[in-house]
Fold this sequence. Notes:
This protein is α+β, with helices and mostly antiparallel strands. The protein has one domain. Helices cover 32% and strands 25% of the residues. The longest helix has 24 residues, at 132-155. The chain is globular and about 50 Å long. Iron/sulfur cluster (SF4) binds next to loops.
Amino acid sequence: MSEITLSVGNKVRFKCGRSGVCCSSGPNVSLTIYDICRISRFLGVDWREIAGKYFYVVIADYMPIPVLRGIDNRCVFLELKNNIPSCKIYRARPMRCRLFPFLPVSPGDPTRVHVSKICPSIGKGPLIDPPWNLLKFYYDEVKKHYRILNELVMEKGLDPLEALEKAIDMACSEDNSASFDLDYLDKLW
Ligand code: SF4
């Protein structure tokens, strides 16, 4: 295992050093339907315009899993600004990126979190609590994501890609959702 695990009450030293390691260690960021809507809103385009270009979909056990695209192990949104790694969609970056270097354990286990050891800033900076509030918000979105997809695929019998399309349309139409209030999300961590 390449992680350590923290429980509520545990702290860790961390201050982001902008290494960019997290964004160039393989295209492995899974997305929820809410991540996709946040990114497309931020870019000012319909989500269909970013499908294939910025994310792709793998299907596992009939469930569609959207994943950020990478080029040579680097995220498509990673760029260098004055030689410093930067995210082109930073304000609307996916939840798993917001949480990094903390890695969710499971939606059923919100009191523990893994800490990725690939981040060179772990062990440096002030002692901090893991982002429990942001983690809870993420789990709520993940549960909604799978509840909707499960209903569309398993109960209504839609094809996985058709179900994903419908689910993203549903999520993107939740106009008053806190999911699209980027200021609110920033305050969660
Ligand atoms: S979306 Fe942004 S923060 Fe997330 S991996 Fe890509 S460049 Fe990094």
